[in-house]
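input
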Amino acid sequence: MRPVEYMVKHLPKVWIRDSWFCLWYTGAYLLKQFIMIAVSEETCLITRFMFSAAHRVRFSPVYGNLHGHNYDVTIKVCVEGRRDLVLDIDVLRSRLQPVISSMEGKYLKAPGEAAQGLAQGEFVEVPCFSNGVTSECLAWYLLDRALGIVESVGVKPLGVYVTVCDSPINCFEARLKSS
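output
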């Protein structure tokens, strides 16, 4: 017995105004819609950056002290359909590199945080909540920068994804999907 025949035979029937209505039709329609969604195609550009920076998160008894990470950042930009080119990867990299380089070897400071005696060039302010810059917040910050670059070159992304790993086992992802 084929799966569709099995569905027709075993799906319950519902009584609607003096006639029987088979739910198999609805089930088959939904299955068709699911299959159409499941086979949509995307083409994605993926690039990575690495940098080292220090921060502190005051809400954590474990990580509340000043400490640093070697951040591994992955940025993924997807467009609908099969494409030969999403966008020039050198354009994305060259415009994001100054943002990444500005954080290299610096203290990542939240807006409400004191500069802790650091000179102006020794920290980068990342718009997060006042208890410190988290990797989740850093992912959203970088996603906003990447999205601005992608849109400025006329690309309408299906999705932009930024993953920030602050260790080999801890990664945080920000996702923006177009509807």
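quick obs: Residues 13-25 have pLDDT under 50 and may be disordered.
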